Amino acid sequence: MIEALYIAATGMHAEASQIDTISNNMANLNTTAYKRQGVSFESLMYQAQENGATGSRNQSYGMGAVADKIVRFFEPGDIKSSENWLDVAISGKGFFEVELPNGALAYTRAGNFKLDENGFLSTREGHLLADRIQMPADSSQLRITDGGDVYATFPDSSEELIGSISLAGFMAEQDLDAISGGLYIANESSGSAFYSEPGDGGLGLVRQGYVETSNVDLVEEMLSLTMAQRAYEGNSQVIRAADEMMRINNSLRI
């Protein structure tokens, strides 16, 4: 009976992790380029139990479940027009590479850029785009082609090529480590980044004036939340039943 309490408790703990993950997905429904997460469950070790009918053969039973790891799904979100020339979305695979304050490199799909005090393209949090695109002080705006070439437009309608935006890709992007602000960093599991111009090397194109929305499906998350809640409640019922059976056993007098 003690095993039933333990097994049900592991189920409740695992489903609580699922509910927390779903809640985070729903909270980021409107976060630019947010990638939804899911929980990978794993069965705990099995124990052998002697078969009372034969007295010889053993039967095995599981000892519950555990939330093994949090996985992230990188399927692209919808691309929507923002009518802001500083917004750039990736249509397809790939990441923008940015520089962190400590000099390390990070990667993001959130291309809702701004200009810093020196005219460089940077993220909303102030991380400089690694391609070092600087808008000339006497230009009026930038024009970015689908292939990543960046032109400065001047008041007399002339243009000047000032740089290009490249994209980074990974062989195992689902293994990237997430940090704050929609940024990811590489690790041994994800492998090192490879680089290509937009549209080459299996990477997507860039679309100026567009932003990528979250890939969270509200209906799907609500269904998953309902299932997780029911599983949690079911495990709690098991604990109550096991507790009641133990109470009855303890009250028996032989």
From TrEMBL:
Domain named Flagellar basal body rod protein N-terminal is located at 5-35
Might you name a Gene Ontology BP term for this protein? bacterial-type flagellum-dependent swarming motility
- PROSITE patterns in UniProt: FLAGELLA_BB_ROD
Entry GO CC: bacterial-type flagellum basal body
* Residues annotated as domain Flagellar hook protein FlgE/F/G-like D1: 89-152
Q: Which residues form the signal peptide?
A: none
Source domain of life: Bacteria
Subcellular location as annotated: Bacterial flagellum basal body
Q: Which residues form the Flagellar basal-body/hook protein C-terminal domain?
A: 207-248
Which keywords appear in this protein's UniProt record, sorted alphabetically?
A: Bacterial flagellum, Cell projection, Cilium, Flagellum
Q: Which NCBIfam families match?
A: FlgEFG_subfam
Q: Which family does it belong to?
A: Belongs to the flagella basal body rod proteins family.
The protein depicted here goes by the name: Flagellar basal-body rod protein FlgG
